[in-house]
């Protein structure tokens, strides 16, 4: 009996077969890192250990606008009530110095009529600053100090009204409210367009009022190390887009696909499909423009990390013409389909253009094979239908009633005629 080694050659054994299988490069697992820009556009950045806090008080108006609504409303109410109380104390002091608070005082005219207590002085302060003027209390010519307090309260009241109402108006008409209707696709895609590997996103505007002078900017944020050993934790690299090359502005009437060609100047030039999933890459998209109705500049932001970049996908069309009108189906805004795309990097495609040709040829062959399979399945189904219909016809013919023959005797002979 021969040994197993003489029956099966070594090159066809399990060790030999395993050694000839091409191994994929092994990459370390990607460490979860914080996003620099959230999907809603907010900056994921915390400011700590700020020693010069007084700089915020130098720009009080911007500080009030940047505060949250609950803090703004508290400051708004506190400012008005404090001013009313402050000038109520001033009116009470004027009345006290003139002796108007003495109930036994008779004869002399009061500085302010019907101000006999701090409560009445507070009510008069509100009437003066808000210019209500109910008519029960009014200032007289008796006291110059009262006239001075009246002028000061009017000036201070106008300043408080201007600042607070302006703050409320600016918070109501902030540009980020308009940015809520500027949308980005949930995922970014990488596919071949015009024989070049491209990074693409889709942007759109939900409102009919347009964004004038809209511009789009793409930036890649990643951690880099310089040749000198300096570590830059947030290195921002500008990425060129086709829209920026053609013109400076976007006509954002319908959703647009923003395309970045991955060329030699792109930071994604050396990334393949597998390397992209293991990288700490983050692409930031910034859309800026002027609101047509208000003239306020607005900005919408989002970002895409490596898990949100789909390699070998393409956005589906969402603009169709229906009865002479272009219709946009926003339910398919972020939908993508798989397309044939090489998994190598753009550098490898430039060095070996045959990779793209071979990939397209394989895709064409697989497409033809699928069409052949579909055609063969259709022919088989049609033949089965024909065979089943023929058998049904034969069965139906067997179920038909047989011919009945009637025989009648004929005169002068023994022959019988069959009548059906």
UniProtKB/TrEMBL annotation:
The chain crosses the membrane at residues 71-94, 145-169. Residues 182-352 form the Inward rectifier potassium channel C-terminal domain. The record marks 161 as: Role in the control of polyamine-mediated channel gating and in the blocking by intracellular magnesium. One of its GO terms (biological process) is potassium ion import across plasma membrane. Gene3D superfamilies: 1.10.287.70, G protein-activated inward rectifier potassium channel 1 (2.60.40.1400). Residues 367-406 are annotated as: Disordered. GO terms for molecular function: ATP-activated inward rectifier potassium channel activity. Keywords: Ion channel, Ion transport, Membrane, Phosphoprotein, Potassium, Potassium transport, Transmembrane, Transmembrane helix, Transport, Voltage-gated channel. SUPFAM superfamilies: E set domains, Voltage-gated potassium channels. It catalyses: K(+)(in) = K(+)(out). It is a multi-pass membrane protein. Residues 37-174 form the Potassium channel inwardly rectifying transmembrane domain. InterPro entries: Ig_E-set, IRK_C, K_chnl_inward-rec_Kir, K_chnl_inward-rec_Kir6.1, K_chnl_inward-rec_Kir_cyto, Kir_TM. It is found in: Membrane. GO terms for cellular component: monoatomic ion channel complex; plasma membrane. Residues 388-403 have a biased composition (Polar residues). Pfam families: IRK, IRK_C. PANTHER family: ATP-SENSITIVE INWARD RECTIFIER POTASSIUM CHANNEL 8 (PTHR11767:SF11), INWARD RECTIFIER POTASSIUM CHANNEL (PTHR11767). Belongs to the inward rectifier-type potassium channel (TC 1.A.2.1) family. This is Uncharacterized protein.
């Amino acid at each position: 009996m021969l040994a197993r080694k003489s029956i099966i050659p070594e090159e066809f054994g399990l060790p030999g077969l395993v050694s000839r299988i091409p191994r994929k490069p092994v990459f370390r697992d990607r460490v979860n890192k914080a996003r620099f820009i959230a999907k809603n556009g907010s900056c994921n950045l915390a400011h700590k250990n700020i020693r010069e806090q007084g700089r915020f008080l130098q720009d009080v108006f911007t500080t009030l606008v940047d505060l949250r609504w609950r803090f703004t409303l508290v400051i708004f109410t506190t400012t008005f009530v404090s001013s009313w109380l402050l000038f109520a104390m001033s009116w009470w002091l004027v009345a006290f110095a003139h002796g108007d608070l003495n109930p036994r005082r008779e004869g002399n005219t009061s500085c302010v009529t019907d101000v006999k207590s701090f409560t009445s002085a507070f009510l008069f302060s509100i009437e003066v600053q808000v210019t209500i003027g109910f008519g029960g209390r009014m200032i007289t010519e008796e006291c110059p100090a009262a006239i001075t307090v009246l002028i000061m309260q009017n000036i201070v009241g106008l300043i408080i009204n201007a600042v607070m109402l302006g703050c409320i108006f600016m918070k109501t008409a902030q540009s980020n409210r308009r940015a809520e209707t500027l949308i980005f696709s949930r995922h970014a895609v990488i596919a071949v367009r015009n024989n070049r590997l491209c990074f693409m996103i889709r942007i759109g505007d939900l409102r009919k009022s347009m964004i004038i002078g809209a511009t789009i900017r793409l930036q890649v944020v990643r951690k880099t190390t310089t040749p000198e050993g300096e570590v830059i934790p947030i290195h921002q690299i500008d990425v060129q887009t086709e829209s920026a090359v053609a013109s400076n502005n976007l006509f954002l009437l319908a959703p647009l696909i923003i395309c970045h060609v991955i060329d030699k100047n792109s930071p994604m030039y050396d990334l393949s499909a597998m390397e992209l999933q293991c990288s700490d890459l983050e692409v930031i998209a910034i859309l800026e423009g002027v609101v047509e109705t208000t003239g306020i500049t607005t900005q919408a932001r989002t970002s895409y990390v490596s898990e949100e970049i789909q390699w070998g996908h393409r956005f589906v069309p969402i603009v169709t013409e229906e009865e002479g009108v272009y219709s946009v189906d926003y339910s398919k805004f972020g939908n993508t389909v798989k397309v044939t795309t090489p998994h190598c990097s753009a550098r490898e495609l430039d060095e070996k253009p045959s990779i793209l040709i071979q990939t397209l040829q394989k895709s064409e062959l697989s497409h033809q094979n699928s069409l052949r399979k579909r055609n063969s399945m259709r022919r088989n189904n049609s033949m089965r239908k024909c065979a089943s219909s023929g058998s049904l016809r034969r069965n139906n013919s067997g179920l038909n009633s047989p011919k009945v023959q009637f025989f009648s005797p004929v005169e002068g002979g023994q022959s019988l005629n069959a009548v059906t």
